[in-house]
Specification:
By secondary structure, this protein is α/β, with parallel strands linked by helices. It has helices spanning 14-23, 63-68, 79-99, 107-114, 118-129, 133-150, 155-162, 167-178, 182-186, 224-234, 251-262, 279-288, 299-305, 312-320, 347-362; strands spanning 33-36, 41-43, 57-60, 72-73, 193-201, 204-211, 214-220, 239-242, 297-298, 333-334. The strands form 3 sheets. A 4-stranded mixed beta sheet has the order 3-1-2-4.
Length: 363
């Protein structure tokens, strides 16, 4: 895999980064590092070393990503140190947001807490956490909302305690992450209809289920009975129905496209996904969606790619918590030594998926 291919979501645009190193802009320190392939060294953007030729420069989200590509830190600017300090500062700010997620935390207020300008805070926070401060607070509020609903608290009290200013906000954009309305979530899916279809595929029985927002469940199993039992345990009070065109017009077509993909006869279908998890899990899953078909990446590289280089074990746990097989391609993540590592649907399936994707790309 090309180790420089860190998704742009974790770094500024390339033109911006090139301008930053040309002007030695200190405000970008901690947002990314750059390596010089002819010297084998990586630096912070403000490094005073002699400028390298543009064609020899490579960009990385953080020191861990640069070092995984075989580069060593510059002794002059010590990029590892500035990134560690920035990481610690942003992590402390994230803890502050978690603690006061229900409050109104403007970007200006957070910037004052971090002793940075709003622009610099936005850039550095996204570089370290993988999301903007606002997106992080939204996820923290959602987590608080879900906790309140699970505890039996009323819907209105849960919404208020989580810091949402109106019920319309909760029932709008937020439900795309929750997967269903807050009332339905609290009631174990009561009032929701989830349609499913099961197929015999090249990798064994597959059950795919969807809410009206997208695929919420796609798993391999022993048989249809075991898979439907698992689906019902996820949504114990939802109305779970076998897919018919009247109930879910898209689901049959989705699962056929999915089956063709795992059989190696069609590209990965671009299906709407109903992702539900913690803010960290969703960052990992979104990162995995950007790993090209046929490539593999280590858990350490996943952690580095989302700006949390010390969280390789947590990244592995997020992969294990993935409920949507293949569509969120956690099968492309291996151990650092190249071993297959774990896979909740069995290592034979993981090996087969990787082999099929590599063979397809080699054609």
């Amino acid at each position: 895999m090309n180790h420089t291919a860190i998704p742009n979501a974790t770094m500024p645009a390339e033109a911006t980064m090139r301008h930053a190193i040309t002007t030695r802009d200190e405000s970008f320190d901690g947002s990314f590092v750059y390596g010089v392939v002819t010297t084998g060294v990586y630096c912070r953007p403000s490094c005073r070393s002699r400028p390298a030729k543009p064609e020899n420069v490579r960009f990385f989200a953080n020191p861990a990503a640069a070092e995984s590509a075989g580069l060593r830190p510059c002794k002059r600017c010590e990029p590892r140190g500035i990134h560690d300090r920035t990481t610690q500062l942003m992590q402390r700010l994230a803890q502050y947001i978690d603690k006061d997620a229900g409050e109104t935390l403007s970007l200006a207020h957070l910037a004052k807490q971090a002793h940075l300008s709003p622009t610099h805070l936005q850039r550095k926070f996204k570089a370290v956490l993988g999301v903007s401060p606002k997106a992080y607070q939204d996820a923290a509020r959602l987590k608080r909302l879900k906790s309140g609903l699970k505890s039996g608290q009323s819907v209105l009290d849960s919404i208020t305690d989580a810091g949402f200013q109106s019920t319309s906000r909760v029932y709008g954009a937020t439900t795309r992450n929750l997967g269903m309305t807050p009332l339905a979530y609290r009631a174990g899916g009561a009032g929701e209809t989830i349609a499913y279809a099961c197929r015999a595929t090249a990798l064994g029985p597959l059950l795919m289920a969807a809410t009206d927002r997208g695929v919420c469940f796609a798993q391999f199993g022993k048989n249809e009975a075991a898979l439907t039992t698992q689906l019902r345990s996820e949504f114990p009070r939802a109305t779970v129905v076998t897919s018919h065109m009247a109930d879910s017009p898209e689901l049959d077509a989705w699962i056929q496209a999915f089956e063709a993909n795992i059989a190696g006869t069609a590209p990965r279908p671009d299906l709407p996904l109903d992702l539900r998890g913690t803010a960290f899990q969703i960052r990992v899953w979104r990162f995995l969606l950007q790993v090209p078909e046929g490539d593999v990446i280590s858990y350490t590289e996943v952690a580095a790619g989302i700006g949390a280089p010390k969280a390789a074990r947590a990244a592995a746990s997020a992969c294990a918590a993935n409920r949507i097989a293949v569509l969120v391609p956690c099968h492309r993540v291996l151990r650092g030594d190249g071993g297959l590592g774990g896979y909740r649907w069995g290592l034979e399936r993981k090996r087969a998926l990787i082999d099929r994707e590599r063979a397809k790309r080699a054609q």
